[in-house]
Amino acid sequence: MKRALRLAVTATLAVLTACGGSDREGAGDAGDAGSDVGASERGATTVVLQDIAFEPEQLGVKAGETVTWRFEDRGIPHDVVADDGSFKSDLKDSGTFQHTFDEAGTFGYRCTVHPGMNGSVKVT
Ligand SMILES: [Cu+2]
Q1: What's the number of domains the chain is made of?
Q2: Which residues in 87-105 are b (16+ Cβ under 10 Å) and which e?
Q3: Cα of 88 from ligand 1 centre, angstroms
């Protein structure tokens, strides 16, 4: 009888240990989800230049935020030129360009190489 009881206790401990392990995995998943949210928040201020277009064409940011344009059209150089001349990138097909928007308003910009390749940043 004593031996059977000891086996039961051992089995119970094994189950508890397994539960503890799965709890830790759960916490790890939650941490990963948190960093995913952070990545998408950072991505919200990025415009990708690809397929001769700005993606997204219209971007909303808060005053003081920096927008990053990522040049992903390899072999097809673009530039980012503000309609009001407040910012202007070099012509390039890789790398990034950044501009910080300090004042509220809607700022249109374009690629001078490709007619119809336009975008805008709405700063609130
Ligand atoms: Cu272009």
Answers
A1: 2
A2: bebeeeeeeebebebeeee
A3: 13
